[in-house]
């Protein structure tokens, strides 16, 4: 995801002198290339994310289009007050690329596991919050961010995620996608955990269950129509996310169902507070009960009810 997104930022920098590549001691190979080839459009603020955000607001006020690249916890949570006051409320044209979101840096511990920022950011005015599930979606979300006049936050998780979207996919705010059809249970996912949902749906098929899989890249606005139709057409809804269920996808889907008055079996699969333990992504998912096996257990429990 990171390469798909930042490669497009490189193209923007090359073709539009208004685009700035900003980082806070977190650049990748693409941002290094921008630094070398377009030094006038690159700035590194060191470990001073709040300063970077405020500076980006000033650049945007002057007509520039800054793309900020940094670790999720530091760019979104350490600098939250500055995002709120300096960017979101005045509606400045600042773009945030939050890296190492979810459990992609599980071995680095809670300080680098970005698992709460969607809950924080989705309540802010004007700010569009996007959680891509695949590299193509990350690329097209970045294209949307460049074309959109206003602040955008893109939650980039890891690298090398499998692709489930077509090359001609067009990102649209407030629109989810049905990745897999099914009539027994609906799995709604946010981010790269889509892969585990698809694996679980395939395993469920081998056991005689038909599982629908929906990808939900934005929570505000959320695709309420897609959620409501799935809840009516299947026997239960289960949400999956590498994020706290409080304020994340699970909460957003619950809000849609409650406000629509739809009674259905419903389960939120995600984190309750910060993640437990350290390890690679699969190990952390297992420790926190959001692995493919946990999904299968929840599906069977839901069907038994």
UniProtKB/TrEMBL annotation:
Q: Name one Pfam family in it.
A: Transket_pyr
How would you classify this enzyme at the top EC level?
Answer: transferase
Q: Which cofactors go with this protein?
A: thiamine diphosphate
* Record-annotated Transketolase-like pyrimidine-binding domain positions: 1-163
Alphabetical keyword list:
Thiamine pyrophosphate, Transferase
**What SUPFAM superfamilies does UniProt report for this protein, alphabetically?**
Thiamin diphosphate-binding fold (THDP-binding), TK C-terminal domain-like
Q: Which GO terms describe its molecular function?
A: transketolase activity
What InterPro entries does its record include? PDH/Transketolase, THDP-binding, Transketo_C/PFOR_II, Transketolase-like_Pyr-bd, Transketolase_C
Q: Which PANTHER family match?
A: PYRUVATE DEHYDROGENASE E1 COMPONENT, TRANSKETOLASE-LIKE PYRIMIDINE-BINDING DOMAIN-CONTAINING PROTEIN
| Family designation | Belongs to the transketolase family.
Please identify the protein, giving its name as recorded: Transketolase
Taxonomy of the source species: Bacteria, Bacillati, Bacillota, Negativicutes, Selenomonadales
């Amino acid at each position: 995801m990171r390469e798909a997104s930042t490669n497009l930022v490189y193209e923007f920098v090359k073709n539009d002198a208004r685009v700035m590549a900003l980082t806070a001691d977190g650049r990748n190979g693409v941002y290094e290339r921008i630094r070398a080839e377009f030094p006038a459009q690159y700035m590194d603020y060191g470990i001073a994310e709040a300063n970077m955000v405020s500076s980006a607001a000033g650049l945007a006020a002057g007509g520039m289009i800054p793309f900020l690249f940094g670790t999720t916890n530091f760019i979104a949570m350490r600098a939250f007050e500055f995002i709120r006051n300096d960017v979101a409320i005045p509606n400045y044209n600042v773009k945030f690329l939050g890296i190492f979101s979810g459990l992609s840096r599980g071995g680095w511990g809670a300080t680098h596991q970005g698992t709460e920022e969607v809950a924080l950011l989705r309540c802010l005015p004007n700010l569009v919050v996007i959680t891509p599930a695949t590299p193509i979606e990350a690329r097209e979300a970045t294209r949307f961010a460049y074309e959109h006049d206003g602040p955008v936050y893109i939650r980039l998780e890891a690298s090398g995620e499998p692709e489930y979207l077509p090359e001609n996919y067009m990102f649209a705010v407030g629109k989810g996608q049905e990745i897999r059809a099914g009539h027994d249970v609906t799995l709604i996912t946010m981010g790269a955990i889509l892969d585990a949902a698809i694996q679980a749906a395939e395993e469920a098929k081998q056991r005689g269950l038909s599982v629908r899989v929906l990808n939900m890249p934005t929570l505000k606005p959320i695709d309420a129509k897609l959620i409501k139709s799935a809840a009516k057409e299947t026997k239960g809804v289960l949400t999956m996310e590498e994020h706290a269920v409080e304020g994340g996808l699970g909460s957003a889907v619950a809000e849609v169902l409650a406000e629509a008055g739809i009674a259905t079996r419903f389960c939120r699969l995600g984190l309750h507070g910060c993640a437990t333990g350290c390890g690679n992504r699969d190990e952390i998912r297992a420790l926190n009960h959001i692995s493919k096996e946990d999904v299968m257990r929840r599906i069977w429990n839901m069907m038994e009810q």
